[in-house]
Amino acid sequence: xxxxxxxxxxxxxxxxxxxxxxxxxxxxxxxxxxxxxxxxxxxxxxxxxxxxxxxxxxxxxxxxxxxxxxxxxxxxxxxxxxxxxxxxxxxxxxxxxxxxxxxxxxxxxxxxxxxxxxxxxxxxxxxxxx
Length: 130
What we know:
The chain has helices spanning 13-25, 36-45, 62-71, 88-96, 109-126; strands at 5-9, 29-33, 50-53, 78-83, 101-104. It is α/β, with parallel strands linked by helices. It has a single domain (5-126), classed as Response regulator (Rossmann fold, 3-Layer(aba) Sandwich). The chain has a 5-stranded parallel sheet with strand order 2-1-3-4-5, sandwiched between helices.
């Protein structure tokens, strides 16, 4: 089976660089984007299986990025929201918009890897690859 292609979108660049390296050591193909605009540009240029998305970023918010991703029906990646400013309302809104999961920072890498694997599995089933 192919390695999951993961895009990490967060303005905490040091954090996502570290997560990216940890994912790569586990066999994932990981890319990073430091804000919503960069993330959307990356998604338009390359196919990703899973996007890990922060909600609060300068410029385009994470919710707006999620809305944009989910308007692309065919082949759209699964989205996991990872935020330090989580509320029940924002979690529910994200799930209603199509996010597959909602996690709050700080996160243990093992938990994030597990959630990415679950999202990747959903993507495979959704796209009819299995």
